[in-house]
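Sample A.
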Amino acid sequence: MARKPFKIATFNANSIRSRLPIVTDWLKAQAPDVLCIQETKTQDESFPADAFADVGYRVILRGQKAYSGVAIASKEEPADVSFGLDDEREPDEARLIRAVYDGLPVVNTYVPQGTAPDSPNFKYKLEWFRRLRNFFDRHYDPRKPLLWCGDLNVAPEPIDVHDPKRLLGHVCFHPEAHKALRDVMAWGFVDVFRKHHLDPHQYTFWDYRVKDAVKRGLGWRVDHIMATEPLVRRSVAAYIDVEPRLRPKASDHTFVVAEFSR
């Protein structure tokens, strides 16, 4: 009997403890093999790992107090776990975690948002992308299967934001951010969601400060699942699950899912 596809998802929780029921309910209902989580906003000792274990998932994580933080939840035990960009800038913020699941390498990143184009934080964002490109050069081969997931804090194309003319120049829809992302993509990545969906109005983030943003379609697609070409050829589905964003006390992001034949 054929094995079920490998199912991976990514989700910016915007505080895992605040969003815990949404995440555990989603895991029980959707049963992905792997869930990459960003912006956990908790130190390691405060992460609610027991709640994940109760629904059949083990967790690897790297956090920091009230800021950033990444984790990966999985049904199976991960291999080759490591954290950070491991370059001359270490120690660094808790923004990257990687492991291997069923022989497939997964890199989960929470790219800096950037705050404002004239902010040092935006320069840090662009530099972080450059460091990430070097990270992939050091550790991986684009001719082999690799998944890169996370909140990348960039909407790549005009169809990925609800008002591209007005929003152009925002740190998540800025020409320099676009170039920084393209430089990493050029290493050998393909946008898995766009392989399956070329239509506009597909978003993963809706600002809390905008009234009825989801219903009005005022969103951004900044959460992504990227894959190298050998893995893209095995891609059988990708979708955005909007429903969790409509729940009470939701994150401002929602889940993105991709499936691959084994």
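Sample B, a different protein:
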Amino acid sequence: NSYNGPLVVDKTVYFIDEGGAKAFELPAEAGETIELKQLWTAQPKRERYYGSPVFHDGLIYAVTRFGDLSAIDAKTGEVVATKVVKDVDPNGQFYPSIVLAGKNLYVAGDQGKSVILEPGKDLKEVARNELEPTKATAVFEGARMYVRGRSALYCIGK
């Protein structure tokens, strides 16, 4: 991947970038050479993916730099849902990785605006938030969310 990291779940590694999405079965043991078995390829939105994808309940979630969110079936590669979230941060790009915290997905743009969604095929919007601009990914610990802005570190929660 040129811009984001791969996602490893159990014995499968997933790659999502501007060339598409791919899944490979990892070998049981590492050796001097590793041969991967390709499981599937898919074509979500062809664009750069700066943030790394996230996995939940059999689906992989990934967002392009311009706010096109896809939910991909991890077993088949089928794109089962899409949602344009660009209106959340219309003047920005989506650099931070998607975060799964509690029962929700957090998708943030670099101008400090984010949308909170219920995972699944419906991708129902729960809320929107706004802080200062940042390209950092939020981190969750218990009931608290930490976000590094350009000028401050925020702790939101109990």
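Observation for Sample B: The first strand starts at residue 7 and ends at 9.
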